[in-house]
Amino acid sequence: MAAPATAHGKRIALAAVAGAHGVRGEVRLKLFAESAASLSAHKRLFVGGNELALATLRPDAKGAVARFEGVADRSAAEALRGSLVEVDRAALPPLGPGEFYHADIIGLPCVDRDGAARGSVVAVENFGAGDLLEIEGADGRRSLIPFRPGIADLEGDQRIVLDPEFLA
Question: Which whole-number Å values give the CA distances from 34 to 18, 66, 165, in the listed order?
């Protein structure tokens, strides 16, 4: 799923609202970021596309519990269920050499070593053993391939060079 465009570029999802927590407007968050602290570092958060200020945030065994200004009761909190908690891409910390955000990889064209088009990246997955790129070819078929040197190489910030032997 592509992040929506904004005046500042695209938005990056850091969490999703899993549901209400208690009766005072708190919500349970499923974190996509490293920790709850990564959310509190941002002044502007977009919840379901609406800009909301973060009033409170605390880690929880299953992610985090948050309260947003203007969300005062359980009904308002429950209405946010399923909403993404996003930040503008430009608000994320700068990256070091060789680092990337998954959102920057999604949408990149993929070519083989001869430069022939092989599709594009539609998702980045990580099941614990490293990143996997989901590549969709022109025919609509999808393949999961390891994002490893020699198999799938990020060339600049512009494209992925693939070993076609790994495509289904």
Answer: 17, 16, 33
Give the residue from 126, 103, 102, 111 showing the smallest Cα distance to 159: 111
pLDDT bin (cut points 50, 70, 90) of residue 86 is very high
Query: Any idea how long the chain is?
Result: 168
SS3 33: coil
Q: Which residues pair with 85 in a beta bridge?
A: 15, 47
Residue pLDDT, tens place only, 62-74: 899 999 999 999 9
Write out the E strands in 113-164: 117-126, 131-136, 142-146, 152-155, 159-162
Predicted structure pTM score: 0.70
Give the pLDDT of residue 100. Answer: 81
From CA 102, how far away is CA 90, in angstroms rounded?
Answer: 14
